[in-house]
Amino acid sequence: MSQQAKQVKMPESAKRELEIFAALKGRSQTDVLAEAWSEYLQRHGHEMSPGLKWAQAVLGDAAQTAIDASGMDQADINELRDAFG
User: Fold this and answer.
1) Burial level of 33, CB count in 10 A (0-12/13-18/19+)?
2) Would you give the distance in Å from CA 69 to the centre of its chain?
3) 37 CA to centre of own chain
4) pLDDT for 34
5) Pairwise pLDDT comparison (2 vs 52), residue with the higher score
6) In sequence order, what are the residues at sequence separation of 6 or more whose Cβ sits closer than 8 angstroms to the Cβ of residue 31?
7) Which of 70, 3, 53, 65 is nearest to 30 (CA)?
8) Model pTM?
9) CB 31 within 8 A of CB 22
10) If you ran DSSP here, which 8-state letter would residue 49 be given?
11) How many distinct helices (H) and strands (E) make up the chain?
12) What angle separates helix 29-60 from helix 12-25, to the nearest 10 degrees?
């Protein structure tokens, strides 16, 4: 399953190194970058865990996350619901 993605902008020097490396290895630039990203995630994925958990919470229940972020308590929420339906 292949998906098209937007291009990633990178410095020309890095782009040239990628082109050369991929050519020397007989691989596509896409494959080289995908493998590099996978290795990066293996090494640094734990650093992203708090952000990913937050994103999952937002996507899972956006309304509750908004309420939690607002600092309102349940009484405030009930008052707003009563006032605005």
Assistant:
1) middle
2) 20
3) 12
4) 93
5) 52
6) 22
7) 3
8) 0.51
9) yes
10) H
11) 4, 0
12) 120
